[in-house]
Amino acid sequence: MSTEENLKIALAGESQANRTYLAFAKKAEEDGHTQAAKLFRAAADAETIHAMMYLERLGRIKDTTENLKEAIGGETHEYTEMYPGFVDAAAADGDGESKLAFRWALRVEEGHANLYSSLLDKLDKADGGSYFVCQTCGWTAEDMAPDGCPVCGRPKEQFKEF
Ligand SMILES: [Fe+2]
Ligand SMILES: [Fe+2]
Question: Which pLDDT does position 128 carry in this prediction?
Answer without folding.
Answer: 84
